[in-house]
Amino acid sequence: MSVTPYNVLGTRPIRHDGADKVTGRALYGADLQLARMVHGAILRSPHAHARILRLDTSKAAALPGVFAVVTAADFPPAAADKIVDFGEGDMLLSSLRGNILASGKVLYSGHAVAAVAAVNAHVAAEAVALIEVDYEPLPCVLTAPAAMAPGAPLLHEGLANGNVAEYIRHEIGDLTAGFAAATVIVEREFDTATVHQGYIEPQNATAFWSSDGRVHIWCSTQGSFVARDATAAVLDLPVSQVKVTPMEIGGGFGGKINVYLEPVAALLSKKSGRPVKIVMSRRDVFTGTGPTPGSRVRVKIGVDTAGKITAAQAWLAYEAGAYPGAMVGPGAMTVFACYDIENVLIEGFDVVVNKPSTAAYRAPGAPNAALATETILDEIAEKLGIDPLELRLRNAAKEGTRRADGPRYKRIGCVEVIEAMHASAHYNAPLPGPHCGRGVAIGYWFNIGLPSSATLSVNADGTVNLIEGSTDIGGSRTSLSMQAAEVLGIRAEDVHPTIVDTDSVGYTGVTGGSRTTFATGLAVYEAAQDVVTQMKARAATLWTAEEVDFSGGIFSSGPNTLTFAQLAAQLGATGGPVVGSAAVNPRGAGGSVAGLIIDLKVDPETGKTDVLRVTSVQDAGKAIHPAYVEGQMQGGTAQGIGWALNEEYFMDASGDMRNSSYLDYRMPTALDLPMIDTIIVEVPNPGHPFGVRGVGEANIIPPLPAVANALYRAIGRRLNSVPMNPATILNL
Amino acid sequence: MAPKVQVQTTINNEPVQFLCEPRQSLLECLRDVVGLTGTKEGCGDGNCGSCTIKLGDRIVTSCLVLGVEAEGETITTIEGLAHGNTLHPLQKAFLEHAALQCGICTPGFLIAADALLQKHPHPTEDQTRFWLSNNLCRCTGYDKIIRAVQAAAVEIHGAPQ
Amino acid sequence: MATVFIPTVVRPRLNGLAQLEATGSTVGELLIDLETRYPGLSQHLLRPNLAISVDDEVTPLGVLEPVRPDSEVHFIAAISGG
Questions:
Q1: Closest listed residue to residue A253, CA positions, set A583, A518, A513, A598
Q2: Residue A1 has pLDDT above 80, yes or no
Q3: What is the ipTM of this complex?
Q4: Are B73 and B94 in a shared domain?
Q5: Overall fold of domain A18-25+449-584
Q6: Which of A188, B56, B128, C37 is the most buried (most CB within 10 A)?
């Protein structure tokens, strides 16, 4: 047993919002009820690409029970175009507006065209059906290769090159010389389908446009300030005129960063004078929000007899959907990120197609790219007769390794994760029988910083109240409270966290990029240090002492000692309340490496794959609350397995999604998965006082290639497209 | 618009009357008319299980039941699972095993798991997975949910003989 | 002199040069120095989808970030996440 220097970190307290969430008291966006509230519904395009010739809302507006109808014409006049900063994944204001309510053309089936507010959701739906739209259908294009082909239908005027919005290129070393030095070269091409984050709670937003001009929004968002700023940009309002109250959020995974409903609800409220609530249907969520890109990826890797990668080349074309922004940048940055390679060429293409505008999804862009790299390495390991983990270990990126895009790594845990996989009970256990295969893969995600703010106020009973702005999707109230408790020498239960609206806390970026426990954690740490400094001064006053020490929750000076709680009880007599606060915009977000070992069994008759055993390994830097670190690893693994085996947007030739329900868009159920074992590796991040690395994302990267590699061992053939469902397996 | 219908039910051991349109689902009635918003809507077509409630002696996805069908029925929702301020052993187990992340699917899982433990006091892992396979969770990968349900079974019924 | 690494897509504008030496105490001063020799270069480096990395760390200060004579400056894709 290693001796931990911590009292609170690494323990597993009950989450602070737990009782509310197991008793049904926690309020999510759709649960909100306001006096005089009316309900909105959205009209969506049935065409993947069409010109809007006529849009007549008069019959809808005349229906009894209808309070307001809005279209893109109700947006304020377009100011000069500008970038709307989502903190991650920026968007042009014109694209954001165009996606929220179409103007001129519709660009995908499901594209919002108009919206209605009515006395209830049923009447709103009836009114939407009365809106008349004449469309001139245009040819649609649904995949990146088709959209890049000469003569493809164009979605927009003025992109960089036809439907290619951006070209990315990273180059180091001498590729030709690198491949010349290789003894084994493998090149393969892979296609992946569009998939959805699949959060169970549909998007929702309630807005009230007050007579004083302020707009109050209640919504399900990963970032209340981002929702505020984007809504203000779309409505051409100063940010201070919009106040966002984040409700509990029923999953996001990157898909609840962008705004879809908030500005529409606000416009409907402005017209009706009432609070307006809009809740998406499941089909709205699939067809009207941002899934993650489908892609075509071609990778070529050369390795010498010593098992050293001598050269690597990647060509990545990602489907952005209707507007630019396919996350091909992160794909290009991560495709070879786990490895130390001297000669690299990476090209990326951000390609618009007639599908919903894509959004982030857990390590966005990385799984598509890693599928290729990690599958090819598996093939090369077999050709060279090297253990696949040993091959990865010989090439693992380390501190100081130069990345293909230029900078060198700080301390990362790539070697440690591979070694933990190699030493695991799972990797050293025999396979259970015929038609079974074991696959391994690793993946890297950078993680991000971004601003966060926090305030701590000390209560006379020795507890503290934590005010913060990071919406809590997976237990972050507790991982943040634990960091405050550790500094202050109190229990996690003695910290009372509250997530407040955008008027009530300093700017805080999204709960995304695996940043919350790192960056908001740092803000909480700094705020707690501020409290300690102030409390020391109070103790000094009390004792008329020059110097006061604080250690292990005890203030001391000479013979005098007081616990945190004892001193807290005397604040009134020593100068009044103590409130500590901090606002940070940290550098030093430590990247995280994740690995997966998976055993599969394939039924040769039906092509059905059963998942037999799974072990997820990840570098957490320091696991603040290990149960919720494990939860991130298990959740990302389950999503990755679903992506690998079953999930896809099944589009017909006209661009309509034919499987827009949970019955047909088949996410893993409890019956589809075994227990998911976890091994937490802790290589401290030097950029955080407790060594925290974000763990929310890297875990979704290895499942695609690990499943592909396991399937190869089970059936003896390699698949080059995802999902690797029974039909694909039987048709090999 | 069809006239509203009066429906007489027992919800969480209390008599409840509500007025609803014939087209309104029981889920909508519970949430928007009665004000019990603990039951969640994830899909509206019976495939996610978030709106699972107990209706009589069986569990149903309340989005697929009409409000008027609840006439004379006894209903248990998530708000009725605890005894006063004392959490049900399943609720405690979900917290102790970190079996929820975002929490939106949790009410449906708890109601479904409660029914499972009444039918199978000591369910195997396979029985538990099969029973809960109509409840989708996108955050946890189910591992901690299965463990929590099995721990609650021991808490309620003792260790299996 | 600090070293400014040129993103691959920008290199054709500099006849293929991959890195340049520049003088200054901040990223901004380096760019001003480079502008005198390569007019118009900074508009291709200061783009919203590019983050600035100084000595292997993405900086929230951007052009205000201090640099040392031996610093490495990169313009890399702004990283996002889910």
A1: A513
A2: no
A3: 0.98
A4: no
A5: Aldehyde Oxidoreductase; domain 4 (3.30.365)
A6: B128
